[in-house]
Design brief:
Helices cover 33% and strands 25% of the residues. The protein has 424 residues and is an alpha/beta fold. Strand 6 and strand 7 form a beta hairpin. Helix 4 crosses helix 10 and helix 8 packs across helix 10. The chain starts with a helix and ends in a 7-residue tail after the last helix.
């Protein structure tokens, strides 16, 4: 009886939540004529819900309107090279269709998503220098939530530079430096026993990565789902302790991923991806190690795109001096590159005849996420979302379980070949 009562209560809660969201969507469709009460979503600590959006304008003036279930606190900033408007928000669920906020008018690209614990961001790349002549939150009619209204108009380059100079914002101190406090708390994480493996689910939050051609699934979803399967499988193996660098849909900068792995004592770093290519017929897995010179044009192109993750999120990464860069790459070569290559070769041996591989599947390029000077690191492209057959496999539970088994076998062989004792 108690179990039945609890199940009934859960069903009622689910219905109330679904009905509330439905009312919000109706309000958006009718232009704010409904007055929903979404008490569950308005509880303290719950993320905002951006349930509708619209954009209109031309190459001189553009308006953006985003509807929220409750009043959002926001801040607006400008960046140069590339020129952008950035809106920082509290933790927000973006529930509208991507087409509703497709770039138009003054905007060449618009991206949005989570940036870390309690933070979300909208990054709008502009075609010409602009300024926001209006940026405010208004209450919708009849209490149907609130809307953020942003009106932008074209300005001269000189006026845009003046806007940049007046604002007191470095662009990333609240986000890239550890908005989640992950870096500050990492040293307090209990030391893992056995051989420690960091599994890095590529992309996340505002950086969705590639998109499937058939299902339109985001790469960030594919990598996280598979990463969870792989970590669970690795942790069943004696002497191996695996953890997720990213355990939910949030943005983590490339450099922070490296630091997280090192602070938690990782002895191996595996970054997971599923990119897209213009050539739809190319399919199969590829594994990469770091190098200052790419093995081929494909590797160079993929590395360039993956290294743009921070830029996509609106984080300005200061270029290191050539001297520092050379030292980092030299350390990577001398201390870890041989081990990274050994791991990559072991993965390919495990995959051979079991998992589809592209031609010359062992490649190298300058992936920033592989730059830990003391942790052997590889980047695994599980397949390509641009190929329908690969996309089907990447979303297939049986295939993912098989690949997780093969990767676990490869990690074990790598340990054995490196003389690492299987304790635990």
């Amino acid at each position: 009886m108690a179990a039945n009562s609890e199940n009934a209560r859960q069903r009622r809660d689910m219905l109330r939540r679904s009905f509330g969201v439905l009312l919000l969507l109706v309000a958006a469709f009718l232009g704010g004529s409904a007055s929903p009460t979404v008490s569950l979503a308005q509880e303290e600590g719950k993320p905002l819900i951006a349930y509708a959006a619209r954009i209109a304008g031309d190459d001189a003036r553009t308006r953006v309107v985003i509807d929220f279930d409750r009043k959002p606190e926001f801040s607006l900033h400008y960046t140069a090279d590339p020129n952008r408007l950035i809106i920082d928000l509290p933790d927000t669920d973006f529930g509208f269709k991507p087409a509703d906020l497709a770039a138009t008018g003054l905007f060449g690209a618009i991206r949005y998503g989570r940036m870390g614990e309690g933070a979300s961001r909208i990054v709008m790349t502009v075609k010409r220098p602009v300024r926001a002549v209006l940026a405010e939150v208004r209450e919708n009619d009849q209490g149907a939530g609130f809307r953020l209204v942003l009106d932008c108009e074209v300005v001269t380059t000189e006026a845009f530079v003046e806007l940049l100079n007046k604002q007191k914002w470095t662009g990333s101190e609240k986000i890239a430096g550890g908005k989640t406090d992950r870096l500050n708390t990492a040293p307090d994480v209990p030391a893992a026993s056995g051989f420690v493996v960091a599994i890095d689910a590529g992309h996340g939050g505002i950086d969705a990565g590639a998109k499937g051609t058939v299902t339109e699934v985001d790469e960030k979803v594919i990598t996280l789902e598979f990463a969870k399967i792989l970590v669970e499988r690795l942790n069943r193996e004696k002497g191996i302790s695996a953890f997720l660098v990213r355990d939910k849909d949030e943005f983590i900068s490339l450099s922070e991923r490296v630091v997280i792995a090192r602070q938690r004592g990782a002895q191996l770093f595996v970054s997971l991806h599923a990119d897209t290519l213009r050539q739809k017929d190319i399919r199969g897995a590829t594994i990469y190690t770091i190098s200052d010179k790419a093995s081929d044009a494909l590797a160079a192109s993929l590395a360039e795109r993956e290294n743009l993750s921070d830029d996509i999120a609106g984080i300005k990464i200061e270029a290191e001096s050539s001297e520092v860069t050379d030292i980092l790459l030299d350390l990577t070569r001398r201390e870890t590159q041989a081990f990274s290559i050994r791991m990559a070769e072991t993965v390919l041996e495990s995959f051979e005849g079991q998992i589809g591989l592209i031609n010359n599947p062992l490649r190298h390029a300058g992936f920033r996420v592989l730059q830990a000077p003391d942790v052997p690191s590889v980047l695994l492209e599980l397949g390509f979302l641009s190929n329908p057959r690969d996309e089907a496999l990447l979303t297939d539970e049986a295939w993912r379980a098989k690949v997780a088994d093969l990767l676990t076998t490869a990690v074990g062989r790598y340990m054995d070949s490196s003389g690492i004792a299987r304790g635990g």
